């Protein structure tokens, strides 16, 4: 059972915190699916795993895109992988906003804005996020999103985590038979090409005009 008395300090609406925790958890799985696909196209495989752990997300995506161009796999399959990579980039950017921002509290009717006057365990009704864009530390972008929008981002992460998992095994079975054989799947395993999910939406910061209102 949830402990309604913890935390006693302000962190935000429990629904927001729960949704952010889901994003943090599922993103780790999504990154694992990316690593699996990375090991198919960046060769040899042992080198790919070492390179993956020594580089950042931006460089990893550049490496796999370049390697993908030289793959002998059908162009249709490579387009599926590129679709996953496009989604992964968007999901990573959105996740970084949620996980690396300074959190602002958004107060609603009935909230006590002053922390010195608020009752114990009272949490503000909403959250907003402030983060500087890459390469411009003197600019601060503000993202004000609803709980529904945060949950939509979590659902998109899950959709592409599943897509990446099924795409990996489909590629192994159909285009990497030697590596697939090492998994010793039963002969009846099919690993059909998964349905391509729609790309997630990017988080958009509030315009300066809106922030000044």
Keywords:
three-stranded antiparallel β-sheet, 7 helices, mainly alpha, 213 residues
Short description:
The protein is mainly α and 213 residues long. It has helices spanning 14-41, 45-54, 57-69, 75-99, 147-175, 177-181, 208-211, and strands at residues 102-106, 126-131, 141-144.
What does this structure look like?
With 213 residues, the chain is mainly alpha-helical. It is built from 7 helices and 3 strands. The protein has one domain. The chain is 54% helix and 7% strand. Strands 1-2-3 form a 3-stranded antiparallel beta sheet, with no helix packed on it. The longest helix is centred in the last third of the chain and has 29 residues. The chain is elongated. The relative contact order is 0.16.
What is the overall pLDDT average?
A: 89
- Secondary structural class: mainly alpha
Number of helices: 7
Percent helix: 40-55%
In whole angstroms, the N-to-C terminal distance is 41 Å
Task: Name the shape in a single word.
Answer: elongated
Strand order of the largest sheet: 1-2-3
Q: What composes the largest sheet?
A: 3 strands, antiparallel
How many structural domains can be distinguished in the coordinates? Answer: 1
Which parts are unreliable, with pLDDT below 50 for 5 consecutive residues or more? none
Question: What pattern of helices and strands is seen along the backbone?
Answer: HHHHEEEHHH
Tally of extended strands?
3
Kindly estimate the percentage of residues that lie in beta strands according to DSSP. Answer: 5-15%
Cα Rg:
21 Å
């Amino acid at each position: 059972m949830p402990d309604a008395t913890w935390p006693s300090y302000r962190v935000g609406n429990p629904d927001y915190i729960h949704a952010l925790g889901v994003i943090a958890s599922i993103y780790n799985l999504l990154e694992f699916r990316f690593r699996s696909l990375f090991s198919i196209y960046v060769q040899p495989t042992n080198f790919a795993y070492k390179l993956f752990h020594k580089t950042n997300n931006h460089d990893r995506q550049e490496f796999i895109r370049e390697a993908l161009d030289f793959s002998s796999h059908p162009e249709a399959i490579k387009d599926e992988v590129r679709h996953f990579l496009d989604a992964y980039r968007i999901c990573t950017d959105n996740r970084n906003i949620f996980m690396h921002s300074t959190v602002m509290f958004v107060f609603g009717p009935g909230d006590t804005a002053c922390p010195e006057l608020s009752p114990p365990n009272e949490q503000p009704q909403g959250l907003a996020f402030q983060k500087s864009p890459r390469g411009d530390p003197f600019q601060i972008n503000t993202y004000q999103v609803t709980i529904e929008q945060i949950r939509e981002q979590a659902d998109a992460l899950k959709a592409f985590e599943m897509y990446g998992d099924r795409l990996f095994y489909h590629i192994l079975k159909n285009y990497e038979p030697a590596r697939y054989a090492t998994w010793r799947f039963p002969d009846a395993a099919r690993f059909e090409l998964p349905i391509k999910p729609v790309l997630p939406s990017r988080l958009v910061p509030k315009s300066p005009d809106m922030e000044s209102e």
